[in-house]
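Researcher: Here's the sequence for the chain we discussed earlier.
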Amino acid sequence: MSADAVFLNACRGLPTARIPVWLMRQAGRYLPAYRELRRSYDLLTMIRTPELAAQVTLQPLAEFTLDAAIIFSDILPPLEGMGLELSFVSGKGPVIGNPIERSYDIDLLAAPPATEVMAPTLEAIRLVKHELKGRGTPLIGFAGAPFTLASYAVEGGGSRSYSRVKSLMYREPSAWKRLMTKLVTVQTDYLLRQVDAGADALQVFDSFVGLALGPDDYERYVAPYNRVLFAALVEREVPVIHYSGGTGAYLETVAASGGDVLSVDWRIALDEARRRVGKQRPIQGNLDPVAMLAPWRELRAHIDMVLAKAGAEPGYIFNLGQGLLPETPLDNVKRMVDYVQRYSPAETHKQPHTRTEEGA
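Model: Thanks. This is the structure I predict for it:
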């Protein structure tokens, strides 16, 4: 079975001959070829140059037998088109130079079409699709969810307390509605244009929402906008993966807000997640990325636990609970991918391997 059939069938809840595997942030700093490019180009230059973005997207496929590629980009560049100043600062991460500080700043935000402001990424998708032609490997496009982008736009970068963005929600609900509505408009258009360019599936990243909000605030301030976003993507008939970080306490509400596949982090066991959202709902995850730094005997035990809890039902995609860390050993990635792909869904109920086996 080709990689596209394995991955896309799992996304649709159909039986597959084996478990598909791809990794969030699989094109990144843990790869020597990527680090070599970064010596010559900064991150935004690589994202804005279609040929470089396509090259980076394909790098992990040259190293591993992954079942999907994901376009090399970042969730934040669409904010630039809206009028926010984005930079990536060494040792600090993404920084918004002119964060939203008052309601009037929201009114000034633009909502330009993705064909204008995200044209390099759309062209990179077309280049990658050309390179993948005949290889049977699907390409995933992606974007950030409205709340996660709003957090960056208001906080000016990462945050521990999310106090500024939450204060905006609580104090100025009409301004919050205008901000989220604009973000839904921009992100919906961007995701649809990625499909038009050739993306075979989509993933929406809501990385911060569970770290910032409890269930009541999620239902009131986030879920209505996520429902609009995911509903608008149905027309393209490609699988849509909904990733949310730290939302195990209200996973049912997250699942109800949309997406064909629910991608969960390592803070909730997969068997519990499947029980709570229904075993018919395709699910993705959820190895702790830090486990990828462990010796193989320990990493293998963690993989076995994930596979055992995933169960034998159709509609499962192996992935991490968050992105690969830069210090991840290349050999661990290769061994993990090969190991998972040797399983068939029916075998995942077997007892985890003991640590005294050969190769431990």
